[in-house]
TrEMBL record:
UniProt keyword Transit peptide, yes or no: no
SUBUNIT field: Monomer.
Keyword annotations: Disulfide bond, Endonuclease, Glycoprotein, Hydrolase, Membrane, Metal-binding, Nuclease, Signal, Transmembrane, Transmembrane helix
Gene3D superfamilies listed in its UniProt record: P1 Nuclease
Family, per entry: Belongs to the nuclease type I family.
Official protein name in the record: Aspergillus nuclease S1
Gene Ontology molecular function: any one: RNA endonuclease activity
Keyword Disulfide bond: yes
Gene Ontology annotations of biological process type: DNA catabolic process
InterPro entries linked: PLipase_C/P1_nuclease_dom_sf, S1/P1nuclease
Catalysis performed (reactions): Endonucleolytic cleavage to 5'-phosphomononucleotide and 5'-phosphooligonucleotide end-products
Amino acid sequence: WGDEGHYATCKIAQGYLTEEALAAVKRLLPESAGGDLAAVCSWPDDVRRTPNYRWSAGLHFVNPPDFQCNYNYSRDCHDSAGNKDRCVSAAIYNYTLQLSTAYRNDSSVLESKYNLTEALLFLSHFIGDIHQPLHVGFVGDKGGNSIVVYWYQNKTNLHRVWDDMIIYSALNTFYDSDLTTMIQSIQRNITDGWLNEVSSWRTCPNNYIACPDPYASESISLACKYAYKNATPGSTLGDDYFLTRLPIVEKRLAQGGIRLAATLNRIFTHPSKIA
Ligand code: ADE
Ligand code: ZN
Ligand code: ZN
């Protein structure tokens, strides 16, 4: 996602944190966040092109082979040089482990060998990204980045349509150009429209603390069914594409937020509190 998508995911998540998780998050947030996780959720995108963080650039996505509409960790989670366990799913496991290990050995939150503030920001950002269908897009087109399309009159690429353009058009068309209004609308859907599904979004198989692999599977499936569909190179995407894909984008932002909160709640629940 672009800045707005990450802001929305983290804003939604913060509203579903337990008291204990919210306190832990606030302790880890940098001063500049002013207690608001959403304010720093795009930080990994700000640093991915800087020399000190170039290693993180490949951790924002994972690419299944061309035209495989399914995801397989051991097949797909590698960087372009073939190094295993370098993808968004591995990054989510890694930062979850850093945070949960430090929190379990409680006071060591302050003396972990890892930078737990960075771990929190990377984890929050990557749980957002793995819900963007084209962050689990095909390798041959770099998740839609190399598919040139027109968004109404404007030349862009399919990846950017899903990161940004659908959200920008929704803001302009339906939400008075106000991201807070759009987020409130998604929050209302969580509490009424999707109410029956939301508890299933929260659960991880096998009592795992984090479970990115099912989210990646959903994403490539949605990429095939909605993102790549009728978006061939050079095509113009307009009202029909916008209006049929916007509900998918809004649901993925909601799922990202609910699942980020559920993951942080599991990470920051002291073992003594689990019945
Ligand atoms: N962003 C940059 N490269 C990407 C890729 N190969 N797949 C998805 N998102 C990306
Ligand atoms: Zn992206
Ligand atoms: Zn990203």
